[in-house]
Amino acid sequence: KAAIRSVVRWGLIGFSFFVFLLLSIALVVSSAAALFLEARRTARDGSIKNLHSLYIGLAYVILVVVSLIFFAKRRRDVHIKLSKIPRKHVAIRREDVPKTVHKFISEEYLRSAAILYASQPVDGHQDGWGDPGTDFEGIRFRRRLLDTVVEVDEAARAIVPRLLPIRPHTRVLHHLRALTPLIPVDESGSSCLRSYDSVIEFARHARREPTEEEFVHGLQAASDLITIFRSYDRYRAEDDDEQERSQEGSPAPRTFSF
C-alpha cells in the first residue's frame, strides 16, 4: 500500500508539472500572437514588418534566453546539492525497499554477523585484555581500573561531601589524604590506599598494559577502600542513632569493624 501511494503521489506531481508547463507555454505563445496581431492591425500598411513587431520579437527572445539561463543555473544547483548527498542508504523500515531487496539485505546481514561471530578468537591472548573464556573476557584492564576511581570517589564523598573534585591527573593518595586516618596500615607500613594509588598511577602512565594479576590486585584494593568508607559511613549513622536514643534514655551498643 505504501508503495502504491508513493507511485500515485509522484505520478500526480509529474502530471501537474507537465500540465502547468504546457499551460505556461500556451499563454506565452498566445500573448505573443496577440501582440503581433495588434502590431499588424495598428500598422499603416497592415504589414507585420514594422518597428513594433521588432520590439515584441526582441522582448520574447530575451525572455527565452533568460528562461534558459535560469533553467541551466537551477539544474546545476540541484545537481551540486544532490551530489553532496551520501549515496549509501540504510533501510530502516520494511516498506522503504521492495520485499526482494529487504530479504537480500537481511540474509547478507545475518551472513556477515555469522562470519563475524565465527571469526572471533576463542583461545587467543591480547595484552591488557581479559582472555576469552575467563571471568574477565572482553574487559580492558587499564580502562576498568581507571573507572574504579569514580566509584572510590563516590564512596569517599559519602563521608566527606565537600571533597574537592578529582582531576584526571590527581593522585588518589593526595585526593584522599583527608581520609588516610580511617584506613588500616599493616606491619610493613603499607595500606590498601597506597596499593591502589600505585596501580592507578601505573594504569595512567605506564606504556606496558596491566597484567591480569595487577588488575585483580587493583580491583581488590578498590573494593577494600569502598568497604572501609561504607563501613565508616554506616558506623557514623549508627552513632547518630545511638546519640538520639541516649537522649531518650535508651543506649545501644556501638560496633565498628571492617
From TrEMBL:
InterPro entries associated with the record: DLT1
Gene Ontology cellular-component terms listed: membrane
Assigned keywords, A-Z: Membrane, Transmembrane, Transmembrane helix
Localization in the cell: Membrane
Predominant cellular place of this UniProt entry's protein: membrane
Similarity comment: Belongs to the DLT1 family.
Protein name: Defect at low temperature protein 1
Gene: DLT1
